[in-house]
Amino acid sequence: MKEAEHQENAITASDLRKTFADIVAVDSISFSVKIGEIFGLLGPNGAGKTTTARMLTGVMRPDGGAAAIFGHDIVSDPIRAKQRCGVVPETANAYTDLSAWQNLMLMGELYGVPKHYAEERANTLLSALGLLERKDQLVQGFSKGMKQRLILAMALLHEPDLIFLDEPTSGLDVQSNHLITGMLRELHESGTTIFLTTHNMEEANRLCNRVAIMRKGKIAAIDSPERLKMAIERLHTIEVSFDPAGTDDNLASLQGIESARREGDKWMITTEDVDSTIRAICAFGAEHQLKIEVLRTLAPTLDEVFLRVTEGGTV
Ligand SMILES: Nc1ncnc2c1ncn2[C@@H]1O[C@H](COP(=O)(O)OP(=O)(O)OP(=O)(O)O)[C@@H](O)[C@H]1O
Ligand SMILES: [Mg+2]
To answer: Class of the 234-298 domain?
Structure first.
């Protein structure tokens, strides 16, 4: 891989591949994640997200292709590749017979963080993740959300430049979810690169700079959430309601409109050109002395993109 590529990218993967007996879990995928990006890997169960994350974090050796973390090859230079990473795996990895604090100190030792610094960091992280009061309790008494927050704190103790999270908020309540996504935003602002897998489209939409959608071991689509949404829907829907509502005039005669139909007291209009259609609707209202009560454009959601792509379509 070229030197210039290394300087910009936190992760580069080319033709990365993993098979289990006759299952091709990851089917020669290539992608890169830029330094400072929040990158989301989406896909249905069994798509190959965890296997990809496991290869990138050195848990599992690829069968083919190559990948590098900040320019360090994951197979030939694994220690240097791992040193700059923090990992929140799919299944919990804290010692349940130790306290939260002991788990954090253990991580500090593992990464060679000086003790006084590890203690300071642990206090800051526990406080930010709402666990400071529980720091001396054994992890076995922790709820799922508390465990997950602790695992995130453990992954961040050595201040990694890149953090991998495999479904970090799956099955968590609103508060844990909020604390974790808040922490991810803070990390992003301070320049940390974030690689996460998720089933939560809304979360990916709000958090990620770019997402890749995996299907059967391959990357079926990769782009920013907004561009993916735009790509699936050339036609936009505009919802409008007038007061008085019972006009018989047909909006479908307006120029540039694909279709217009009534749904209850609203009109649902589809168009390729949102701007000129909204102008035409306003002119129509003024001409017929109708007050516009509601006017909104309904954009496609990342959910729709996901369904389209994972059902075999393309964007
Ligand atoms: N250790 C393993 N041994 C055998 N097969 C495996 C192993 N790990 C993963 N697989 C298979 O590889 C495929 C991809 O699995 P993977 O766990 O990467 O999917 P995923 O996208 O993370 O799914 P989920 O959303 O359910 O977490 C699946 O068919 C799975 O059964
Ligand atoms: Mg998984």
So the answer is: alpha beta
